[in-house]
Write the structure tokens for this entry.
Amino acid sequence: MRFGKFRLALPFLAGAAAATIFLGLSGPVGNAATNYDDLSLFTNVLDLVRKGYVEPVDEHKLIQGAIRGMLAELDPHSSYLDPEAHKEMQIDTKGEFYGLGIEISKRQDGFVEVVSPIEGTPAAKAGIKPHDQIVSICPDKLPQGWTEPCKLTKSMTLADAVKVMRGPRGSKITVNIFREGFDRPQPITVLRDVVKVVSVDGRLLEPGYGYVRIRAFQERTDQDLRAKLDNLRQESKGELHGVVLDLRDNPGGLLDQAVRVADTWLSDGLIVYTKGRIESQRQEFRARAEGTEPDYPLVVIVNGGSASASEIVAGALQDQGRALVVGTHTFGKGSVQTVYPLEDGSGLRLTTALYYTPSGRSIQEVGISPDITVEAAPQLASSDSAEGPHRIREKDLEHHFTQEEAKPEAPARPSEEGAETAAGEGASGDLQLARALDVLKSWTYFERLRAGPKTAAVENPEAPAQ
């Protein structure tokens, strides 16, 4: 199960088939007749379009469009993934691919710019630097439709540029780079190799106080997290006095990774439980004592871009009284998606369950409320960010599940008494991070937290025993 990953489709499909047969035997025959009438209507419309539309049509594209339209009627997170999109999703969750190893963006003039090369990747070894402008790309094997050996990035979408720069391991690609000090673009040839995207980075804020940021929950996020914490401990000469966990603008990822990340700081108790229509989607996930981090103070930073798996982690640590949450309200995505691979390489992403925090809260539509509200600094809250003036959250999406439909088993958790909005600015210009560090160094908050969380973690009476 995933906010993106499907482990094995066959058992679910077999169960669904058995259920259909059972309902057909015990239920009214009219439902089946209605289904056949609807399918007949669909085929009639398709036939009319094929025969009478003003221009020839691609039936395959029409059917794909119909599937997309059908799923769009369900909720914002159920969708059809064509083979290319399905493959990209698998790459994103695995965090590993063959390519150059650069983060890129589009400049205002339309050309592609290097945000940064990923350390240790072919791009970094070839000498590509941050802010390099990629003027054109010259692949060793011309993609379909290309008539020239090189193509200006100005005429390409960002997705097209990414697709061209990825390729088989050991193959070559030349990018023409322009940077400050060059009088003309210079060619750099890169040998493609495996690129591992590390989803976790961090540093010491001050001696003894660590900062860890998780960008997304991928297949190795828990391993990357533990490795980073070990590195920070070594830099601190063996001990950490506190850690800031930054989940801002983290859109989510794999459910099992969210559970393992929360388990890093929890020794027992419930982390999250899920409820769906079928029994296999009703699960609870618990913490284990093995490998739990020391009981140092922990602050989690969130914002409107913290969604799904990020909210599971923040909600579990908050409900269990292990961490204080600082920042602004989260996105509010409280649903779980299962991805079913289809025979042509495409995929079906389907919402199959809702999840609940240890105290029984559903964060669907409402999000996680921080214990201490701290707005982002104005220069960090641009209109393009999750904290911008036109931010979009789950409640703004068409066909989203409402809080009432999610049926929370406990009222939404209020902010801690004394929650505040910070007005001062930290040295780095990151108000939320500066406030989180202040909280770490203030033992008053944590002594109050240890005296007993306002919403004690409760056992879920409906979740199956493990």
Observations:
- The chain has twelve helices and 19 strands.
- The two ends are 17 Å apart (CA to CA).
- The first strand starts at residue 79 and ends at 81.
